[in-house]
Amino acid sequence: MTWQRFNIFFMQCYKSIVQVEILFLRMKNISAIANQIIFFMLADRILISEPNITCLYTLMFYNVITYCVSYIKELIEKQDWSLYVTLTERSKIKHLAMSATKIVLEWTKAITFAVTLTFMLLVFGLEQGLKHYKPSTLYTTFTWIYYSTTEKTFAEMFPSILKFFQLETFENIEDLYAPVILRSFTIGISALFILIALPMASWRFLFVASYLNVYLSLKDLLHKSGATLQRERKILNRYRKATSEEIERFDDVCAVCLCGMTKARITSCHHLFHADCLRRCLKTSDTCPMCKRGLKLSY
Fold it and tell me: Taking the C-alpha atoms of 100, 102, 104 and 109 in order, what is their torsion angle to the nearest 10 degrees?
């Protein structure tokens, strides 16, 4: 009876811990900030002789840079420059309350950006920085790379960078590969810093760092982006890759997107498509996008 009670108690505790972990991972902003602070603290212990909470100052500066970048990005991608809000999409009648709110919001963003930019110039351009804030070049390099891979504003740009190189390995599904690559990198570099910090940091801090930045991050990778990529790759692997001769024979044009193909997947009915185009079509139907035949395994 005692052993059974212990097992029940242990399972209840384990389920509670799992629920807390799931909740923590769902709060992406909080979990990202926690990972960043812990990694910066690791970098403080390894790369800075006198830390003096360098990690917090660094994180503050990086957040300021991120805000500036996100605001500029918003301006570049902005399509509606009107300060007024109409009652309907086609109406010319202005909604006074919403228009006033929009004007205040836009001016607030602009003023905040100007103040933030002025602050950055004072700190870095005019050398009016903090007295004890002296991060090394190596410290800045590692912390910035980690920050940019975990911050949403910069992480969203990574798929575009992968697409720019047009590597055939990704088969036009860079959006699925990007989060896996970024997450794997952050886990790897965190594990490396934890190993380096073994002689110079307390075991409690190293345990927390290992748990949050390695274990939970790995768990999130395996259950989310990694699982999604594996599932989509499994679907694509049902259809073999077309040879260059086959692509040339079919005029190397994908029938779905009408773009040229350098790499393609071939179906059982001998039609060629981009891997990503075929994957998207299979989400809505199990038939060939061209001849509408039921798709079977192709080897």
Answer: -170
Secondary structure letter of residue 224 according to DSSP: T
* φ, ψ at 295 (rounded to 5°): -85, 130
Partners of residue 273 on adjacent β-strands: 265
- SS3 state at 151: coil
Match 């679907």 to its residue by tokens.
Answer: 235
Structure tokens given for 207: 């345990």
1 DSSP 8-state letter: -
What type of residue sits at position 70? Answer: S
Query: Which has the closest alpha carbon to 41: 126, 125, 143, 128?
Result: 143
Classified as helix, coil or strand, 202 is coil
Show the tokens assigned to 160.
């575009």
Please report the pLDDT score of residue 87 as a whole number: 59
Is the model more confident about 289 or about 206?
Answer: 206
CA distance 275 to 241: 9
Please give, one letter per residue, the 3-state secondary structure of 59-109: HHHHHHHHHHHHHHHHHHHCCCCCCCCECCCCCCCECHHHHHHHHHHHHHH
pLDDT of 84-94, one tens digit each? 767 566 667 67
CA atoms of 226 and 205, how far apart (whole Å): 28
Residue written as token pair 């503050």: 60
How far, in Å, CA of 112 to CA of 88, rounded? 30
Distance CA 41, CA 48 (A): 10
**129: Cβ–Cβ under 8 A, 6 or more apart, which residues?**
123
Classify residue 273 by its DSSP letter.
Answer: E
Residue with tokens 């060939």: 288
Q: What is the pTM of this model?
A: 0.82
Contact 42, 142 (CB under 8 A): no
Report the alpha-carbon angle 155-265-238, nearest 5.
Answer: 90
